[in-house]
Write a structure and sequence with these properties.
The protein is mostly beta strands. Helices cover 8% and strands 40% of the residues. It is built from three helices and 22 strands. The strands form six sheets. Strands 7, 8, 9, 10 and 11 form a five-stranded antiparallel sheet that branches. A four-stranded antiparallel sheet has the order 3-4-5-6, with no helix packed on it. Helix 1 packs antiparallel against helix 3. The protein is elongated. The model has no long low-confidence stretch (mean pLDDT 87).
């Protein structure tokens, strides 16, 4: 058996630990004031529960003093061993609801809060219709991606080796409607929704496995339900966990990633400033939106004939941090000899942080 432990600080600088049994193996925890009593409560997904429905969502109501009532199950059990859930107000009544992603069934089940704090009546009512999602959905989170009073859903899918996409599902009426989407060059492993830039609207930050090593990407939201191009950052290993916050107090969101694949690492990615990052396609030396032999010619002309470029980073086809004939050779190898494909941003246009860039003015 495994436990959920809550560590609270005391006025004299000590800490008190309370542990709660929540099913055989708790694997995900989210917090919200589910019963509107002013105290934070916990929702916990536990796997390996006895019976045919092996995964179960539990609620632990907070007492306001750091303690919690015993966990109880409320009906949204699932047989999907890799289920994930998100918390948000999906119907706009100010009460926190639940969304349970079942990747094996390519669907999301919605549990609407009964909106009553009466003793013995607290619980959730599952919507009759589930929300379909595409094959490969693995991660889910919630945030207010448009201007209404409802929280929306974000679903991340795995599309293959080092390739994924993210889609917004906008809460509307009794269900959800398709919002913006974006692709990125990672096999996704973790997701967080947070306002990374300074516009106050939610963005998506995703960690995962890159073609080599690990990576993180930020996909901005515009406040109208749309998503922009991914900004990709390389890290040593594929991360298992990601979170976000303003670490340096400059008003922009920063990222913390825990990497456990080969080495026990924590990466902290600090965003510096709020200027928009240039969007380009690696290897697209002439900026026409595709890769062909003319790009290799452009690289050679840049190196040896005095041609100029407004995006040196795009000419760095092998992403080794310098411009030389190896970039043209790499690009020709990819185009005609089944060589490795260019590193991100590729095959979709995207950005890299200025500290990793040779320079690019394309927007």
């Amino acid at each position: 058996m495994y436990y959920v432990s809550v560590v609270t600080g005391t006025s004299d600088g000590r800490f008190v630990t309370r542990s709660y049994l929540v099913g055989p193996t708790p694997v995900q925890l989210e917090k919200a004031d589910f019963n509107h009593d002013g105290n934070l409560d916990l929702a916990v997904l536990s796997i390996g529960t006895a019976g045919s429905y092996a995964q179960q969502l539990y609620i632990m109501l907070g007492a306001g003093d750091g303690g919690f009532q015993p966990a109880y199950a409320f009906g949204m059990a699932t047989t999907d061993a890799v289920a994930h859930f998100a918390v948000g107000d999906f119907n706009g009544d100010t009460w926190a609801d639940l969304a349970l992603l079942e990747p094996g069934s390519s669907r999301i089940r919605i549990g609407i809060n009964k909106a009553t704090a009466l003793p013995g009546e607290f619980g959730f009512s599952e919507s009759a219709a589930s929300v379909p999602v595409g094959f490969g959905a693995t991660l889910i989170d919630a945030g207010r991606f448009d201007a209404d009073a409802r929280d929306d859903l974000v679903v991340v899918r795995t599309l293959g080796a080092a390739q994924g996409d993210v889609s917004v599902l906008l809460a509307q009426g009794e269900g959800f409607a398709a919002g913006g989407s974006a692709s990125f060059p990672l096999n996704p492993t973790c997701l967080v929704v947070y306002s990374i830039d300074r516009d106050g609207t939610p963005d998506c930050a995703i960690g995962g496995a890159a073609a080599t090593g690990g990576g993180a990407c930020v996909i901005p939201g515009d406040g109208a339900g749309n998503l922009g191009a991914a900004v990709v950052i390389s890290i040593p290993e594929s991360p298992a966990y990601i979170d976000a916050g303003d670490m340096d107090g400059n008003g922009t969101g920063d990222l913390v990633l825990v990497e456990t694949a080969a080495r026990m690492l924590v990466s902290v990615l600090v965003r510096d400033g709020d200027a928009p990052l240039a969007v380009f396609l690696r290897g697209d030396a002439n900026g026409d939106g595709k890769l062909d032999i003319s790009d290799a010619v452009k690289i050679l002309r840049f190196l040896f004939s005095g041609d100029t470029s407004d995006c040196a980073e795009a000419l760095d086809a092998n992403d080794d941090g310098r411009l030389d004939i190896a970039d043209a050779v790499f690009l020709l190898g990819y185009l005609f000899s089944e060589g490795p494909r260019p590193p991100a941003p590729f095959p979709d246009a995207g950005s890299v942080p200025p500290v990793q860039s040779l320079g690019c003015e394309r927007l």
